[in-house]
Design a protein that fits this description.
5 strands; Knr4/Smi1-like domain-containing protein; 16% strand; 48% helix; five-stranded antiparallel β-sheet; Knr4/Smi1-like_sf; Knr4/Smi1-like_dom; SMI1/KNR4-like; single chain; 173 residues; alpha+beta
Length: 173
């Protein structure tokens, strides 16, 4: 996964999309990520949220504790101590979907917001069977009808890389 994140960072640097708000650490390291999360921070988040986070998300956190949006289409991944239930962060959105679509509304009620706080698009972890460690991975945006589901974080970041590559090609023409 680190290779994907590095490739996304490099394309973002070349395009200049994400560097207006970059930190000194990010600029010096040409990396949209941050210092890795420590194990205790991850455990504390799991205790606070009463869940065992998915392994691929924990791996992501061991690489980088958050990840800046590489463009205006993707959300910024939050630091582990900032993640929370969507129902806590954006209860109005959950209410709207709960009334209009029971299945999606039920999923949103129990989902964790891990990216996009205060942005137009979210990335959510939706527990399917916590005892078995099964989760759904959703990109959810107000400009996209419903959720866009991924098999895991790696698949999401592969999709982001493809988008960045396409944007890079379009900008070079």
């Amino acid at each position: 996964m680190k290779e994907l994140l590095l490739a996304i960072s490099i394309l973002s640097i070349q395009s200049g999309d994400a560097w207006e708000n970059a930190s000194k650490f990010q600029i010096e390291n040409q990396w949209l990520g941050f210092e890795p999360a420590n194990t205790e921070d991850v455990r504390e988040a799991e205790r606070r949220l009463h869940v065992n986070l998915p392994e691929d998300y924990k791996t992501f956190l061991q690489i980088t504790n958050g990840f800046s949006a590489p463009n205006t289409v993707e959300p910024t991944f939050m630091k582990v101590d900032e993640i929370d239930y969507l129902n806590t962060i954006d209860p109005d959105l959950v209410k709207i979907w709960d009334v209009s679509n029971n299945e999606t509304g039920n999923d949103l009620k129990k989902s964790l917001l891990i990216a996009g706080k205060g942005q137009e698009q979210y990335f959510l972890l939706v527990p399917v069977d916590i005892a078995k460690g099964k989760w759904k991975y959703w990109k959810f945006a107000n400009w996209h009808p419903g959720e866009q589901e991924y098999k895991g974080l790696k698949d999401y970041f592969k999709d982001v890389l493809k988008f960045c590559e396409q944007e890079s090609l379009n900008n070079s023409k």
